[in-house]
């Protein structure tokens, strides 16, 4: 099973592909040096294969490499960083300004 996590724009997101086909995404918005993750999904036909975890880990690693902090508004991302060590030093709480910056569509 060949997977790849890559950053895309329009809207800003990280996508995971399986054998070259997009099967999931996690959306974010950057606000004042913080990457606010607000939505994650994997296609129903690929649920239960660990793809969401692979996707989120890749997105968080890329965020760390860019020198940004992480704000986990998305319930899946929030659970992921609580369950997996190594992210606490990058976590910030959401502010009203960050929440307002999240696209409504």
UniProtKB/TrEMBL annotation:
It comes from the Bacteria. PROSITE patterns: GNAT_YJDJ (PS51729). Residues 6-92 form the N-acetyltransferase domain. InterPro entries: Acyl_CoA_acyltransferase, Gcn5-rel_NAT, GNAT_YJDJ. It holds the Pfam family Acetyltransf_CG. PANTHER family: BSR4717 PROTEIN, PROTEIN NATD1. This is N-acetyltransferase. It comes from Ornithinimicrobium pekingense.
